[in-house]
């Protein structure tokens, strides 16, 4: 069995508003991408993770499974690319894991596809796709704990073809009518959605390489407009009729999207360091 991780870090960070790719933005003295990699040292070296939510079966048979390859999908501009490639090289030097870099595309899904192409080109050409697990992580979820990666790897290795980490929804969620309210800027409630059946999905999402290859063939056969509605790989799996398995996510794995999110991540870091 093989384990690969693709980190998509090519987004422009429009909503964060720093005028540079989000993965390069400073969080406590390091670029956001460096925080993702920092949490992966134990996993990379095949050390057992302390995970209260899941016994990692990859250690039950005494085997140690680290990471076989990492692909970082980076922004195209040379300054950002070089800065983030350095993060990858440092991770590789510290862990011995082979790290490959490539440039992303104009959408998250095209960046994921670029990552898979690079994985196949640089590392996985002779790997058995059915026995290769690929995790796809958003660089924007900088604080995802190692235990979540371990849980997703373990679930795929236990036989699930598609796995997503998720948390129960704590807010009350209401569906609104498409047509606006008579009050300017307001909306009309259609119904309250029962919260007990809702989950908020995070990354890393895990798949067999075999399923990812099938997913891109499937997408390629759809009309563009329909393909664009399938914004992540788990949605493609659902559209293909493949069962998607959910494992527990983490409160720490929140996505950094806005300036407020970055401030919250900064506060969490500062708390840990005191
Ligand atoms: N991503 C990517 N390539 C893109 C768009 C997004 O690799 N063309 C990645 C981002 O780097 C991020 C993840 O997908 O790690 C989730 O995207 P999002 O949070 O939307 O990040 P951005 O697209 O950078 O932010 P924004 O939408 O505000 O511009
Ligand atoms: Mg985006």
TrEMBL record:
Enzyme class: lyase
GO biological process, one term: isopentenyl diphosphate biosynthetic process, methylerythritol 4-phosphate pathway
Highest taxon, organism lineage: Bacteria
Details of cofactor binding: Binds 1 divalent metal cation per subunit.
Catalytic activity, as annotated: 4-CDP-2-C-methyl-D-erythritol 2-phosphate = 2-C-methyl-D-erythritol 2,4-cyclic diphosphate + CMP
EC number: 4.6.1.12
Function according to Swiss-Prot or TrEMBL: Involved in the biosynthesis of isopentenyl diphosphate (IPP) and dimethylallyl diphosphate (DMAPP), two major building blocks of isoprenoid compounds. Catalyzes the conversion of 4-diphosphocytidyl-2-C-methyl-D-erythritol 2-phosphate (CDP-ME2P) to 2-C-methyl-D-erythritol 2,4-cyclodiphosphate (ME-CPP) with a corresponding release of cytidine 5-monophosphate (CMP).
Identification of the protein by name: 2-C-methyl-D-erythritol 2,4-cyclodiphosphate synthase
Organism: Nesterenkonia aurantiaca
Gene that encodes it: ispF
Residues of the full protein shown: 14 to 287 of 457
